[in-house]
Specification:
6 helices; 37% helix; alpha/beta
């Protein structure tokens, strides 16, 4: 089932009641409904949120996704990193993969978000809420990247930005979407975050990707 939140803390389509309840519980005038298909859930949201966009030729589509990255032995020899992208229970777009290239936790966090945004673009999602427990990724995309771009991708101390390539790639992917970055607390019982974490850890145990 799909849970459409028309009016809540973060409007969008959710894939479990626990995720939906987080958005509407004790929220004034919350409006939400359960549907058997994703399309019906999206229609419920669009009917209220986008009444004047029919002239754009393409209906707006919003979604919420949870991403996570992990790395065992981070910063040491034999490090193994993985990425996790969670769209919902048994969703065909869920991702659990070993991180390619340099094995670090921060790269895994950024790459997981990149994969989610890339998937959203491929499926014509125009508004995406990326939920992650990575403060590094959230602050990077909302505070640091705009400043780095103005400074030719150099830090305030005149040094090249760490993970510049990854942040630059993610920033480019976001250009055609309305992306909201939501930091959630990790390992605090958030269902979406817990599922993304499991996917990332499972991915880290897979064979390496060069």
């Amino acid at each position: 089932m799909y849970y459409a939140v028309r009016s809540g803390r973060q409007p969008g389509v959710y894939y479990s009641w626990d995720e939906c309840r987080t958005q509407v519980n004790r929220y004034p005038s919350a409006r939400y409904k359960k549907f058997p298909t994703y399309e019906q859930a999206q229609h419920f949201i669009r009917a209220a949120d986008y009444p004047s966009n029919s002239s754009r030729g393409q209906a707006e589509r919003s979604a919420t996704v949870y991403t996570d990255g992990c790395c065992s032995r981070n910063g040491r020899y034999g490090a193994q990193a993985g990425i996790g992208v969670y769209w919902g229970p048994n969703h065909p777009l869920n991702v659990s993969e070993r991180l390619y290239g340099r094995q670090t936790n921060q790269r895994a966090e950024i790459e997981a978000a990149s994969r989610a945004v890339e998937q959203a673009r491929d499926h014509n999602v125009t508004r995406l809420n990326v939920c992650t427990d990575s403060e590094y990724t959230v602050k990077g995309m909302t505070e640091w990247v705009p400043r780095w771009k103005k400074n030719d991708w150099m830090t305030l101390y005149g040094e090249e930005v760490v993970n510049k390539q990854e942040f630059e790639s993610l920033d480019n992917l976001c250009k055609e979407l309305d992306v909201q970055w939501t930091q959630v607390q990790g390992h605090r019982g958030n269902p979406g975050n817990e599922k993304a974490d499991r996917l990332a850890r499972r991915g880290a145990r897979k064979g390496s990707r060069k």
